[in-house]
Please model this.
Amino acid sequence: MEDTQGNQGNKVDCYKCVHFAVSWDPKFPRSCKLFGFKTTQLPSIRVFESSGERCAGFQRKTVERKEKKKGWEA
Model:
């Protein structure tokens, strides 16, 4: 079950964080803009392995919903 900070149990869902980014580097495809590192794993896993604590920098993305258009567009 997910809480309000994107946490699922002890895991932080980086995909829902504003600091998560996809890297251009194929060897390290995921990155954390807040902590400034690239990794092969999710950044929250690397943070946990390094510090022994869940990522404290998680900030949930705000998603703007576009209005659905009615009818056909040409």
Q: What stands out?
A: The first helix runs from residue 43 to 51. DSSP finds one helix and five strands in the chain.
